[in-house]
Sequence to fold (761 residues):
Amino acid sequence: MKDEDVERLFRTYNTALVRYLTRRLGDRDWAEEVAQETFLRALRQDSLSSERSWLFAVATNLVRDEARKDERRRRHLAILADEERAREMEEPEPSSLERAQDAALARKAVDSLAERDRLALLMREEGLDYTEIADALGLSVGSIGTTLARARRRLALVYEAMQADHRRGAAGGGEGHAAS
Amino acid sequence: MQHLDEGTIHAWRDGQLPQDEAAAAEAHVAGCRPCADAVAEARGFIAASSRILMSLDDVPRDVSPKQPLTGAQAVPTAADVMSAVASAAPDAVIDLASRAAAARRVDQRAPRRWFSAPSLAAAATIVVAVGTFALTRAGRQRSDEGGGVDVALRQAAVADSAASTVAGPVVSAPPAAPPSPALGVASAANEVQQRAKPADERSVGSTARAEADQSGLRERQPERADAFSRKAVDVAGAKAPSAVAADAKRAAKTEERVTLADAPSRLAKDPSTRSFQDSARRQVAAANAAGVPAPATPPPVVPQPRPDTMAVQVFRGSARQSVEGRDAASAAAMTGTIRGRVTDGNTGLADASVTITGTSIGMATTGDGQFVLAGVQPGTQKLTVRRIGFEPVSRDVVVATGQTATADIVLKPATTSLNQAVVTSSATAQRQRRDGAAASAPTPRPVPAEAAPGAAVTAAQSNAVGCYEMTITPTSQQARTSFRQTPRRLALDQEIVPSNADGVWYRARDLARTGAMPNGLWRPVGTDGIELEWTYGSRLARIQLTGPAGQVMRGTAEELDRASGTGEAGTVISVRSSCTP
Fold:
């Protein structure tokens, strides 16, 4: 592809791609690097038939290749970071604390999903249609609805259950630290 | 017909069923109570998932190492350490030379690829877009909040250059972290993150602070910066400062090459960067020990003329373009600016949409009709101004690099009145409430019936964009705290929320929460009405309001509890207010 094509791709999709990757990885910098590498790879392509699913698929594979090596540790780090942030923010104002705790719970809930469900959901949240998600993940279009239904149900229920636990913990514990 | 399965319901709510199947699903749900419940539940799950995922978006930088630790030797790679250190403190910023070069050295042996030579050149290309985008976005945001346009521009420029760093001070933070298990790395990363905050562009809340940081940098590092400048010029064999910014891409690429060529010698001479060299060497040794083969040839050095005030800096894997000049605002030197005022001939017109055709650049005018569009590509650009009740105007504006073009636009009142539009409300579950609140729940559609179908009003055409103080009076006496947590101060933005089967919705932000995590959606109903959805936990509040020109709006709120399928209703009065929290 030519520079200007990739520039157009970048303008169109970078925000969504970085958000997708950030949600997946819990690290904005890493997400930006992966997004950038994805666009660089687009530069080496002659043409792309389905731009968006190609970009999301390549980004997903880049993450998978790297993350496979150290997935468990990295997730742990992301959770620790969220919790750390919750603790840091305890001083300044309750709303930040609440936000950070939300994020830590959300991270755990997202991590409780199966990888395929998680990726499908994150892609859907960036506006990919079912065909694009199916392309990017190598699934059949007909299975995407079920995949998303399962992902959303589990995400919401796990999150709610953890939130309930957390509230109970905070009420009993006094200090209100993030659950750990 | 068979009952709908959950996957089909989600596909339908996501707008992904073929038309005939969607119609069949709708027909079935209308006559099937269990399916209607399942649909309501699915809607709750969909909304809750979006909200949960949105809370992940406010992620600090550097919370975990960039690079998976390789194998058994849990040693951070040199590149990891560098990126960690790069963000370690506002005054410990690494310039392109040392970073790119050190990364380059690692790259020659180690499998990390972010900084490979073709990547750098291409990254620099992409970065032109980033710089432009950042400027536009920041400028727009400020003016949306009612800040002065000048301030907006200045702040955008300052924030941008503060984040991308000024001239090249050199690393002062400790070199390689000791080999450590995950916890050690995590705490190091967190520490780094804390210290990095002032330099983080998302954290730079005030112009004053960013400027302070920046002037501090300058004061501490003027010699080095100048020396680097001169040296870079020497290496590049620059002849003509008059070539300033003629071609942003070429200049950026040139600078990359220059820097790569120049860097090793600087590294060697500068004692404070030696630690990096060491860590890079150690890393390379480790990589060798691990048997990682990756020989690479150094990139060709092609000196080209370059302006002596320009430097492109690689920052944490992404190259960012900045101009090393006396004035931070000159970061916009690759592009031009259009400034002007939209009036009806006498007075300024607020909230007119000003866009540049073929780009994503645009903003709404401020209270007295002013606008400033930064980051505009040089050349003749088509400026289009639209406002409800006026004829749209397009005008060609010639933009010169680094210059500000002026375009004052006079709008004429529209001769034909605009069609008022109907936005059909989403299929609100009309549930029977135990407390009898249903009696007050249905909201009359405020819009005349003759409106053309499909003529939906966009946020830019609506009068509702802005900030509101809301008062919610629950009609039931039950204490439902979650319902009362629905935000009392909120902003209706123009940013479109992706992936919504119900059509175009825009973000709504809770102003009471710092950082304003957006977990609300709104859309205009006609020019003077809105429909608002707010999710919290697994609950969903729907609020429908109308009012004159978005100043004072009245309507009803309805809460839907996904778990029980019940909710609470209330009366809402909303008063337009300033967006300053």
